Structures are given as C-alpha cells and as structure tokens.
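>> Question from a student workshop board

For tomorrow's exercise we were told to take the sequence and the ligand below, predict the bound structure, and bring the output to class. My setup keeps failing. Could a helper post the expected result so I can at least see what it should look like? The ligand is pyridoxal-5'-phosphate.
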Amino acid sequence: MQNNAEAALNERDAAHLFHPLHNPAAQTGGKVWVGGEGEFLIDANGGRYIDGLSGLWNNTAGNGRHELAEAAGNQMRELGFASGYAGSSNPKAIELAERLARLTYPTINHFFFTSGGGESTDSNIKLARHYWKLMGKPKKTKVISRIWGYHGTTLAAMCATGINAYWPMFEPRIPGFSHIPTPYPYRYEAPEGAASQGIAAANELEKAILAEGADTVAMFIAEPVQGAGGVIVPQDDYFPRIREICDQYEVLLVSDEVITGFGRTGTMFGLEHWGVRPDLIQFAKAITSGYFPLGGIGLSDAVAEVMVEGGKPWMHAYTYSAHPVGCAVALAMLDIVEKEDFPGQAAAKGTRLLKGLQDALGDHPHVGEVRGLGLMCAVEYVKDRATKEEFDPAEAIGPKVHAATVERGLFSRTRGDVYQIAPPIVTSNESIDRCVEVIAEATKSVLG
Ligand SMILES: Cc1ncc(COP(=O)(O)O)c(C=O)c1O
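>> Workshop helper replied:
Here is what the output should look like for this input. Compare the format with yours to find the bug.
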C-alpha cells in the first residue's frame, strides 16, 4: 500500500518536477528513495528493497560508503572547483589520469573528463572527427553503431543510440549515423554458410562500411556487453573480427565502457574478455559509484600522438571537465575497486546469479533465455519458446514481472520483456540468492 509519506512526496514531485523518461502517469505510483545501505534502498515509507540495477548500473560499491563521502568532503574543503581549461589543472585530475593509464587497456594512456556517459559519447565523436581531419581525411565523419546499443541521449549520443524509442519526438536526427544489427546470440540469424554467428554479425560492420564508403566512416562505437538494450553478450569471436574490420578500413573502434568499466563483467574492462584493444574508450557511472557525476574518454597512444602533434586546439569543453571533487571521489572509488577486487567479486557473484536463475527458470515455458556475463544478467520472456515469438507488448509482461518483484522487495528495470538484473558488486551472497527467489516467484505469479 502506498501510504502517507511516499504518496505525499509523489504529489509534490508531480507538481514541479520533470524526470528523465518522464511520464506523469507513472510518477503517481513512483518510488521516492530516502536512504540506502549497501545493496539496499529505503523508500519514503521505510520499505527496504534490493537495488537490483545498482541505481542505473552505476552504484557498484553500494550506498553508505564513508570513504567516498570523506573524499568529497575533504576535496570540497581544500579546493571546491577550479577550471581544467587549457593550461589549468589540479592534482586529483592528474593523479586520476595516471591511475587510469595503469588500469585501462595498455595502449590507452590519455584521458579527458566529462560529467557522464552521454557527454563522453559526444566527446568521442568530436575527437574522432578532429583526428581524421588532422590525418588529412576530412570526409571521415560518419558514426556506425548497433541496434539495441545505448550511448546516451544528448543529441549526438541519441543518434548513436540504437533503441528507436528514443528518436521519434526529436527527429530529424543528425545525418551521418547508421546502425548495424546486434550480434544478439539468442536472435541473430547468420546467413547460410557463415563461418559462425559471431563472424557473420561482425561482418555486418564490413557491409555497412562498404555501403557508406570507407573514406567517410570515422568510428564504430559498441558496448562490450549491451546493457540497457537487454544485457546482450556477444559471441567470443565477435569483437576480434570487429577489430580486424576496423583496422582494415581505418575506422576507430570505440569501446563504450560506461557500464562494463571497473569490474562489472568480471574483468576490469569489457573487451579484456576477448583480448581486444580499442582505439578510444569511454567510461562514467561506476568510476564514482554514482556518488558524483563524472565520466570521461581514453585515447590510445597512436590517436593521442596525432592530436598532440596536430597542433590545433581541440575546441571541445565542459565547465566540469576534470572537476577536482569528482576526481577525488573517483580516486577513492578506485581504491575500493582494487582493494576489494571488484572484477573477481563480480565474476563469482555473477556466476552464482546466472546459475541460480538458470536452475530456477531455465525450463519455464515462457523463459526464452537466461543470460549474462559477470554481475549483469537478464531473463528474456517469450510467448513461445520453440519459435522465440515475443508477447504482444499490450500484455506488458515485462512491466508485470517488474511490479511483482517490487512487491517482493527487489527493484530493477526491464527492456520490454527482458528483465535486467545487475545489483551492486558488494551485494551479499544471501541477497544474490534472494534476487533469484524473487525473480522466480514473480515469473510464476505472472506467467504460471
Ligand atoms: C553504455 C552507456 N553509454 C552511455 C550512457 C549514457 O550515460 P549518461 O546517462 O551518464 O549520459 C549509458 C547510460 O546508461 C550507458 O549505459
């Protein structure tokens, strides 16, 4: 029952607040969160919920981490803000860039900071365009990304995002963006005679580059594991082939590590699973566990050299780039990530979660697939397991399962009929097992 405190806050909220993905009708029954403790969120009525998506995939360290609060407070007392614009810097930003040079892919050693993921996508697009102009190939401006990819909602990032629900009310999109099919092992149909499903899916990139003209394509951007699009884990041979294609046609490979960075999938960064090195990366979210809005991009040595030697200023800027408080929080967070072995914890807990879900739901007639990598998993519901036919969206199976999990004390998100689950990396084994129980019970309550 939504009594008193939460309902009253919702009413005040609806009077003056606009939300991301705003829908005033949904807001009337929305959750108002007032506290958090580790993997738990507490609502305005005192209800306790497992934070099944770590906030928005970001809060890997959970709530109530005093180290992060202290880092922010200490930095605010020392230097609350100073510009990072040309010629200015601060020690925390310098230290964070040094630290990231050690933690990210060996070839990625140069960093620019932003306030989040979408700004990082825009930064990489503008960086790629600047780079190709310096390389004497000014026509290389186009961006290729994937259907079901999510890269943010600023205007350029929205055009790279491959979830079409984000587009209609903002058309026309910027020219020069196109999308190839996702590798989606559960649904991608490779043409007959293909070497493998993964190679065929990667070759979609080659087809798109040739269709656009290789001399016009600047970059290909992809999440190592597609997150918001439904936790889509690629085949093992997918990214190695993508790397080959990018090399062959001189297209920069941008790894969007906004969700997969800092341990989530069981390695520090996502493409490590397949031994692939990108030209550019982008990160946000877990670098501060969401305690401060900070993101950024990382450049390979080869790209950075061209940018530096090109001699032209990169006319791209955010007031909050290299914010000293954000960088201080990130440094404290990276201490946690390393000392508490977040990649190792995510691998072990993710295996427990995936196996639990597979054991509980693997045979359910309306569960098409249970999948995941590290501590990011999903359950895809289908009308017919044999044909993989989807439910009519009007049946709202995903939202109903979500509602049934909320009733049982688990709060996460769905993409259509795909239930996504990625709790904080600090989640106890007991809570991981509880997530499995709740999702299994909710599935049975909605689908029998
Ligand atoms: C992979 C990926 N890239 C970019 C973004 C956009 O980040 P932000 O919401 O901070 O702009 C997100 C957000 O969920 C994301 O998951």
